[in-house]
Fold this sequence. Notes:
The structure holds two protein chains of two kinds.
Chain A: E1 4-7, E2 10-13, E3 19-25, E4 31-38, E5 42-51, E6 54-57, E7 65-70, E8 73-78, E9 87-94, E10 102-103, E11 107-111
Parallel strand pairs in A: 2-11
Antiparallel strand pairs in A: 1-3, 3-8, 4-5, 4-9, 5-6, 7-8, 9-10, 9-11
Chain B: E1 3-6, E2 11-14, E3 19-21, E4 23-26, E5 33-38, E6 44-50, E7 56-59, E8 62-65, E9 75-77, E10 86-93, E11 102-104, E12 108-113
Parallel strand pairs in B: 2-12
Antiparallel strand pairs in B: 1-4, 3-9, 5-6, 5-10, 7-8, 8-9, 10-11, 10-12
Amino acid sequence: xxxxxxxPRNRITKTGKRIMxxxxxxxxxxxxxxxxxxxxxxxxxxxxxxxxxxxNKGEISDGYSVSRQAQAxxxxxxxxxxxNQTALYFCATSDPPSYEQYFGPGTRLTVT
Amino acid sequence: xxxVTQMEGPVTLSEEAFLTINCTYTATGYPSLFWYVQxxxxxxxxxxxxxxxxDKGSNKGFEATYRKETTSFHLEKGSVQVSDSAVYFCxxxxxxxxxxxxxxxxxxxxxxxx
Lengths: 112, 114
């Protein structure tokens, strides 16, 4: 079984709808991250959490919110989706000492 | 803050050709450097890393050397295969209390033809 899972894998939604993307991990890591991938822009950090009580904004947090329900679960919400939030979204985890990040398979979100 | 600049793609090569993908970075302190690979339809996975100057990371025939004097971490492979076709990302981590937070380059698409 995969160490980092994301649901759903694909989602099409309409402008103005609320949507939640979920991430679960079995690696026992404290640190979790949400990234957005757009062609030609690489990955940009939306939010990150260093433990259940520590949540931080990344470089592109506007229009997004997160919830860290447990060490293993980190959800990303779009309160009112807009078309320019169409992208591929990745969740990742890491822990010291290596800080290597382990990525989920991604969620492809389309906002029409 | 940290930043990473990668050679623009896409890069198209024939099988067994030599590959170089350039990466330069700006960062404070002594960051670690990473190359991640993304195969079609998958998430990113770590390809190799280097944690201090002059370190060489290597994996699956790929190599990259941490050059502090030129702030570079270029990815090389002597003989590429069709199965190496993927998107490659260079990344560096932040220091201080944000240690572990990665900054990625824009990615380089590699296509290898038989």
